[in-house]
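=== RUN LOG ===
request id: a7f3
mode: sequence -> structure
chains: 1
length: 75
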Amino acid sequence: MTSSKSLEVAVQLDAHHLPETNGRIPVCRRCGQRTDDLAGSHHLVGESQAARSSEWLLAQARLRQIEQARIARSR
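=== RESULT ===
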């Protein structure tokens, strides 16, 4: 059974980026989460991986903020 937190994180991952798979393994190359099929239409996040995926999303947001600050500083 999938928890509401797992579903919420999966939706956040889908909003952040489209799953990128190699077509042989249903795992996103970008974030490491499983996908719903080999084509990688949507992310699937298990309850045990929800916290790790949330942390990954937060880290990506921080990296984006750092990059924006770097660009703004160089202008």
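=== NOTES ===
The beta strands are 34-35, 43-44.
The chain has a mean pLDDT of 93.
=== END ===
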